[in-house]
Amino acid sequence: MLKANSDRLDYSEMLIPPVGYKTAFAVGTTYSLDLETLISVSISLGLNEDIDCKLSDSPIYLLEALRKVTDKMIVFSEAGQIKAPVKQNKLFPFLENSVVLINAKNDKSFHPKVWLIKYENDKAEAVYRFLVLSRNLTFDRSWDVAVCVDGKPSGRVISKNESLKDFMYYLHERMESRYEKMTAKKRNLKKLADELMQVDFQLNDKHFDDFDFVPLGIYEGYNKEYTELFNTYHELFIISPFLSKSIMEGFRKLQLTNADKTLVTRKSKFPKRSKELLQDFVTLTLKDDVIDGEDRITAEGDIKKQDIHAKVYLRTKYSDSELFLGSANASENAFHGNIEFMIRLYAKRRWLNVDNLKNDLFGSDEKLNPFEIVKAMEYETTDADSTHEELQKAIKEFCKAKSVATVTDGYTLTVTIGKLKTDVELNISPILIAKPEPVNDCVVFHGLNLAQLSELYVITAKKGDESLSRVVKIKTEGIPEDRDSSIFNSIIRNKEGFMQYISFLLGDDYLLTFIEDGNKKGSEYKFLTANSQDTPVLYEKMLKVAATNPEKLREIKKVMEMITDKSIIPESFNALYSTFEKAVLK
What we know:
By secondary structure, the protein is an alpha+beta fold. The strands form four sheets. The chain has an eight-stranded mixed beta sheet with strand order 9-15-14-13-10-11-12-16. The chain has a seven-stranded mixed beta sheet with strand order 4-2-1-5-6-7-8, with helices on one face. Strands 3-23-22-19-20 form a five-stranded antiparallel beta sheet. Helix 4 (162-173) packs antiparallel against helix 5 and helix 15 crosses helix 16 (510-519).
């Protein structure tokens, strides 16, 4: 079940609609968020293609992916935890109405990682998919876990889904309704939550007898006791990168006679843990060769450390087993205040036990085991973590402040900052502007162009030589309604870009069309030119979709309406489309 070299789930495959279906509405949650990752997700949800496919190399195809899915997607994230982009991307403003930032109460965190997706086919038949993950919506390469369950409407009430419905209601209550797009999404989220009560989700795995949805922290009653994780056991296997002494001591007190206790965690967090805690469990971590593997292979490219990020709890008692997977670390905050989500799987011990799990993770050959047992000893603490936490806290304080922004004539942007409770130096800039300004009561940015206006801003906290940058969202009034069209125009750019877009829309297979386009050069790239003699090629493509998929003609109409610079659209194409519109789209 957890063999790292074979039992893998692909993020793209989990999001891509089943054959014959399209994404109707998708709700995601994450603690930390990478905007580039969110754009990539749109390829799976909107174009039914793999996140890592060649389509991600072209702004035009990413634009189409976003156009298809932004009105059908909403992602909830912890305020102050959106990664600042390394480079600017004109598409970022398209995401502002797809992201809701949540400030949890009492300095706790919004920490769940789930997806709820509704797919529909041409007959309006629905399929629902729910993903429970330990992975955030980033390009992080740490080791995570995921569970995927699909379901269909059953025509009867499924009582176990009530907790999932309550979780969706919690999200719904935190959405604003300032804009028409957000109002529509809020309405769709509530409708989806209500539909859940009759969806029959199935695991389709003979090893498990049943399962429960286990949200934490959303309403009164969804607490530590509700999880039923903290019960007595004969065997306990925990995977958790972050730990609290009180939680681990609580687990220790629940052991029965001769209990087997195993802990897999991060070596990097040992300075925060006591020697006694590490002695009480057989404690393992990933080997340094695995964590630093990419550093040791190459000094170039996108090098990232790989460590444990999964959260897993396997408890057995007599002949029964329970497996918990999801977002909750074995920490005080996770079970006392954070918003979390886990799934509980029930099984018989003969199918699911600690020995089998150890064999999956560690294998039989110690030389090939990616994990190693660590010795209990005292570890020295450093100031690096405390500085990072101070910077993070300053950004979180900024997120709590009631800040607003206004766009006036000439695209002057004025940001009025609410009262801050921090002494850390802060700078701010619109997400597509590389010149930050010091944060004070009022910050003004002059000379912006229409495509640079957005409700997304970059906040940078500094202390000494350390700095931390995050993307935040600030209510911004006065953004012109044609802002999106301006971005659309800047990416399409010219007649050739427009014809490439149209060719893409008319293709039977998005990825195949992309590859074919990429192989065209110079005069061979005829269908991307605006010459009238190339009209027959487009005519044949449009004739085919008119007969087999006339909805694509409506999609072309929407694209043409988005383009305000009419010089981008060839006159010959306008005439050609008009002919089909009159004949097919009556």
